[in-house]
Amino acid sequence: MTVIGKTKLDSGWIAARSTEVDLNGVRLTTTRPPSIPPSSPWMEAAVPGTVLGTLVKNKLVPDQFYGLENEAIIDIADSGREYYTFWFFTTFECKISGNQHVDLNFRAINYSAEVYLNGHKKILPKGMFRRHSLDVTDILHPDGLNLLAVLVHPPDHPGRIPPKGGQGGDHEIGKDVAAQYVEGWDWMTPIRDMNTGIWDEVSISVNGPVKIIDPHLVTMFFDNFKRVYLHATIELENKSSWMAECSLNIQVATELEGNICLVEHLQIQELVIPPGKHVQYTFPPLFFYKPNLWWPNGMGKQSLYNVEISIDVKGYGESDLWSHYFGFRKIESTIDHVTGGRLFKVNGQPIFIRGGNWILSDGLLRLSRKRYETDIRFHASMNFNMIRCWGGGLAERPDFYHYCDIYGLLVWQEFWITGDCDGRGDPVSNPDGPLDHDLFMLCARDTIKLLRNHASLALWVGGNEQTPPDDINTALQNELKLHPLFQCMNTSEDVPQDKDPSLYLDGTRVYIQGSMWDGFANGKGDFTDGPYEIQYPEDFFSDHFYKYGFNPEVGSVGMPVAATIRATMPKEGWHIPFFQKQADGYIKEIPNPIWDYHKYIPYSKPGKVHNQIELYGHPKDLDDFCEKAQLVNYIQYRALLEGWTSRMWTKYTGVLIWKNQNPWTGLRGQFYDHLLDQTAGFFGCCCAAEPIHVQLNLATHFVEVVNTTCDELFDIAVEVSVWELDGTCPYYKVTERISAPPKRVIKVIEMKYPKSKTVKPVYFLLLKLFRMSDFSTLSRNFYWLHHPGGDYKLLEPYRKTKIPLSITSQVLIQGSKYEIQMQVQNQSKKQHIKSLNNHVLDSEEKKVGLLTWITRGFSSEHNGENKVEIDGTDSGVAFFLHFSVHAANKDHKKGEDTRILPVHYSDNYFSVVPGETVSIKISFEVPQGVTPRVSLHGWNYHVGHSVL
């Protein structure tokens, strides 16, 4: 007897173009399995994946994300749908007993398919976002070896890309229930096969006579979250021909330290299911007192319980088992009466939203748990608390949601409607959405059932910059209506049994008809999101910048590092833009054709914003351009988030940046590139979105303390120090003891140095928020600033300043995983503080000034300590330092990209003032046989130094 449960079919697949295969599906699955000799059309296949992903894997087409290679790949509009219609074939073993049943499951295919198993044909109907489950019990081979062939057809309306490109091509893809980005956008080139393929998990599931289908878990809170009830409703199918007497079990466990689980609830219910019938069963509510709650990133722990539901059938034993990690939490969403923006509450606490827009992990749908974990961990590291899954992309996969649950990222999930493909654009698109509205709703319902048990899922939205057609919108509103007890806050009554919330399709999250309606943008659907270009940093703090309470999309630049350009483009793409100075003094950037193809967005906006790279001096080459771009990236995104946060609750309730990442090697709007290397903007966000944060208001020059947590901060102070290029400190102040109420921004002190007569054209500012009791640092924020109307050109000769550094590293190695703690100390000779704000430092302030410059490292088991000294005779700030990790092997070709990616940094692109020590934690995994080397670069260290 085969053990009950699911087995993934994720290896051993081969594929071939349908027009090159002579056999039909019946013969493919009843004769000898096809093989891959040199003359065969068959090749190793990417499953899960797409046709184009398979062709790239076999080097039959070039890497479409490299340079201009996408232009060499034939588009489906020119080739016809048959060209991208492919067979996928595999074998699997499954031998069952007489009372067992087997389902063949496809979690998603694009767009329709014919399935042949052991000579038997099944049809997978249309729709990119629906699951398919086929009962194959009666057609399995008795010997256990089974032959499976799947013929996958592309979308019905792949469309054609207009000569000038455009948002969603000619919009024909909008007639299908499919991802719309594939026809290209202003940030993406077209995907030539329209993502045709078996793009998500394939599995077989074995169960006994009774099968569990789509459990729905809902928690109800009472008495200020002290009393909690867990409701669960499931569908059960009796596949046998006899009356099934069943014991239905639900178990809730929490994981303790050391992989020990504590079972908090176990309930057993008896029921009888008639033969061949589907029944819905609702458990009596499970009671919990003060459970561990799930909180978004920055608000608390992401506590998760393992809910297990199993069913035993009399005379058979365990028939099926289902489990899911589940978080106890309540999400509410209303329109704030002060700002007009949408206000989110989690467990009764308001949460200021700072996050970004997400398209998908990879444009060829090469999706994996490992990549998803990196993606979501990156977002959590930026201190974001929400991800918006944009309507032109995917209904994201369960693995994506799993890691959002783990790392505390709230998810805004849109359905498959965009303004460009569903009502506007050039040419004007069809306003009635997909041709088959019933198919759309079938996919929507199935997606809801797939994702609704995830704690991170915060809201459903009908579409991007558009609402669904009226009938679809009405259906979604009705089927996603809130349960009555999710519409109010402090209900103390028990839930009547006939109003069990788990009987709703969802019932726990708000549905919003479109991304610019009901508390988002101007709330009326007018085009009031954006802007999407470079801005002056101080403008984000001004009264006139964005007048609505919640901006769902505001975008800007996203240039990666030079190594990424070299790794993703031929030498013709290494030329930096031509800076064309116009009559009004503004600079227009003219990028090379490859950058233009990769959707480069300039660092200037002629007539409105002067070139922000040029502020540092005219870039000499690719390395110089990219390094200066990182300076701009850091300032731009830190200012964006600090400007929004400065008006928390008084003007804004949240902001989502367009966009967090690129599903290909694009050059705009990203915090990490497609190769998974972070830009400096990543760390600008990491700084600005700290739950507890000290910042400079660039418009008023007031130092502000931000507390987005639920707890008041007592006995804290701010240390302010200004540093000049020669290493002197002309301004130093430690504030009196202050407190910061929860969920508030407070003004602390005006930074008067910029108005002083002795202010230098370029200077550095270091802000530190610390506890007075033990001098521990709560927030550290470093700025480089210039006169109003000035520039940073004095930083160019500052590159020649040689500042001594001491770098101590401790390394912990566990198999292929490395964890390194770096202590970076600026060993400049300490300079006399010129001005002490008209008073002399007392002993306590001297102590603070010393101790808050020392960041505690971690002391744990390590594989050794290494110390590197970088010589220098000058005094000053070690400016814009950044680590990178490389393979140290000696057999690399010249110019080869040696970076090990991804790498997780606690901070990067950081600066260290004289006498200060900064602690940086680095973690990564190395491929087998590779020895890592850690390098340090910086504004004063452009040659690079190997530090480990």
From TrEMBL:
It comes from the Eukaryota. One of its GO terms (biological process) is carbohydrate metabolic process. InterPro entries: Beta-gal/glucu_dom_sf, Beta-mannosidase-like_N2, EBDG/EBM, Galactose-bd-like_sf, GH, Glyco_hydro_2_AS, Ig-like_fold, Ig-like_GH2. GO terms for molecular function: hydrolase activity, hydrolyzing O-glycosyl compounds. Residues 40-199 form the Beta-mannosidase-like galactose-binding domain. Residues 860-940 form the Exo-beta-D-glucosaminidase Ig-fold domain. Keywords: Glycosidase, Hydrolase. Residues 211-329 form the Glycoside hydrolase family 2 immunoglobulin-like beta-sandwich domain. PANTHER family: MANNOSYLGLYCOPROTEIN ENDO-BETA-MANNOSIDASE. Belongs to the glycosyl hydrolase 2 family. This is Mannosylglycoprotein endo-beta-mannosidase. It comes from Acorus calamus (Sweet flag).
